[in-house]
Structure formats: structure tokens, C-alpha cells
Amino acid sequence: MVQDFFREEYMLNNAIDSCLKPYIALIHGITMGGGVGLSVHGQFRVATEKSLFAMPETAIGLFPDVGGGYFLPRLQGKLGYFLALTGFRLKGRDVYTAGIATHFVDSEKLGMLEDDLLALNSPSKENIADVLETYHTKSKIDQDKSFILEEHMDKINRYLKRDLNYIYSFGKTILN
């Protein structure tokens, strides 16, 4: 039964990743576990100021599922490694800045965004990208806020090249 669940979960993640039709995930609210798997593998991923992204299983030493071993190392620098080792939670615009979301839209505009996407006569990837980019460009919430880990990224990138004991002690100092 467990094997069936994981097989189907990973098959769904793969289907989303290889889907030829445009796939849009709205990362609005808590996005953990299966929600991560349903969103991060899509071509278009829209975060809002209410987004909360995490891989909490990693904080207790479990390997990230839902394809975390695939998408986390592809984030900027060593950020994915840091998230995988610490279970650190990203919120709002930081989900976009980290590269998990492809766009950021103010939550109050999501209904209009959905309407505009549904109104597309023949929704190509280019048309969808144009609509999303229009909303993304107009989003002002936390626009000038720096990335929550910005001041630590040089250290994260430098120290995550070292051995695991050193990495663990470094992670504890950032999280405290």
C-alpha cells in the first residue's frame, strides 16, 4: 500500500513536470508535502504574500520526498541544500526570490488573474507567461523587501561545500 502511494505520487510529479499543456500552480497559503509536489514541478508557479513553503520532514532528518532531491539542488547557489538540511520555511515574496515560484502576485488579485487566464482563447505557454508577467510586474507587496536569507547567502554558499558536521553546526547558528 505504501509502495503504491509513493509510486503514484512520483508518477504524478513526473506527469506534471513533463506535461505538454501549460500547468499553473497557485502557491497561496501553506504549501508543504504533497502541495509542494503538485506545485514545484509545474512550468508556472505563482506565489502570494500568504505563501508558506517548507519541506518540514527535512528538519527531523528525513529525506525530502515529492521530488525534493530533484528541485532543491537546482535553486540558486546552495540554497536548496540549506533548505533540505534545516527545514527552513520561506514566506511570501521569498518563495519567488528563492526560485521556487516563477511569479509573485498580490493575493487580492488572484481572482482577476484566474479570470484573465480562463479568458485566453487558446492558452499557449507564451500567452500565459504574458498574463502572469503583467500581474507579477504590478505586484507591490514586499517589493523592496530583501530576501530573508540574503545576508547569509555568502556563508550558506561557502559553508555548504564542507563536511556534514561543519554544515550542521553552521545551520544551528543561523537558525538560533
TrEMBL record:
<dbReference type="InterPro" id="IPR029045">
    <property type="entry name" value="ClpP/crotonase-like_dom_sf"/>
</dbReference>
<protein>
    <recommendedName>
        <fullName>3-hydroxyisobutyryl-CoA hydrolase</fullName>
        <ecNumber>3.1.2.4</ecNumber>
    </recommendedName>
</protein>
<dbReference type="GO" id="GO:0005739">
    <property type="term" value="C:mitochondrion"/>
</dbReference>
<dbReference type="GO" id="GO:0003860">
    <property type="term" value="F:3-hydroxyisobutyryl-CoA hydrolase activity"/>
</dbReference>
<comment type="function">
    <text>Hydrolyzes 3-hydroxyisobutyryl-CoA (HIBYL-CoA), a saline catabolite. Has high activity toward isobutyryl-CoA. Could be an isobutyryl-CoA dehydrogenase that functions in valine catabolism. Also hydrolyzes 3-hydroxypropanoyl-CoA.</text>
</comment>
<dbReference type="Pfam" id="PF16113">
    <property type="entry name" value="ECH_2"/>
</dbReference>
<dbReference type="GO" id="GO:0006574">
    <property type="term" value="P:L-valine catabolic process"/>
</dbReference>
<keyword id="KW-0378">Hydrolase</keyword>
<keyword id="KW-0496">Mitochondrion</keyword>
<comment type="pathway">
    <text>Amino-acid degradation; L-valine degradation.</text>
</comment>
<dbReference type="InterPro" id="IPR045004">
    <property type="entry name" value="ECH_dom"/>
</dbReference>
<dbReference type="InterPro" id="IPR032259">
    <property type="entry name" value="HIBYL-CoA-H"/>
</dbReference>
<feature type="domain" description="Enoyl-CoA hydratase/isomerase">
    <location>
        <begin position="3"/>
        <end position="163"/>
    </location>
</feature>
<comment type="similarity">
    <text>Belongs to the enoyl-CoA hydratase/isomerase family.</text>
</comment>
<keyword id="KW-0101">Branched-chain amino acid catabolism</keyword>
